[in-house]
Amino acid sequence: MFWIAFKILVGNRGEYVGMVLGITFAALLVEQRHSGIGASQTADAKR
């Protein structure tokens, strides 16, 4: 089953690049969201 999924993924370069870019963008959004929450809590604690 894994081998079939791997062949489908690698067989189409456009889908592979799109998936990698999508996962990278999603990780970036999660990290930005996490950083924003931490920064606002730190600023509130200093007041």
What does this structure look like?
It is a single chain. By secondary structure, this protein is mainly alpha-helical. It has 2 helices and no strands. The protein has helices spanning 2-11, 13-46. It is elongated.
Q: Find the count of extended strands (DSSP E, 2+ residues).
A: 0
Instruction: Please state the average pLDDT score.
Output: 78
Give me the secondary-structure category. mainly alpha
Sketch the topology as an H/E string, one letter per element. HH
Share in β-strands: under 5%
Q: What is the CA–CA distance across the termini?
A: 56 Å
Number of domains: 1
Count every helix, treating DSSP H or I runs of 4 or more residues as helices: 2
Low-confidence stretches: none
Approximate shape: elongated
Helix amount:
over 70%
How large, in whole angstroms, is the Cα Rg?
18 Å
**Major β-sheet profile:** none
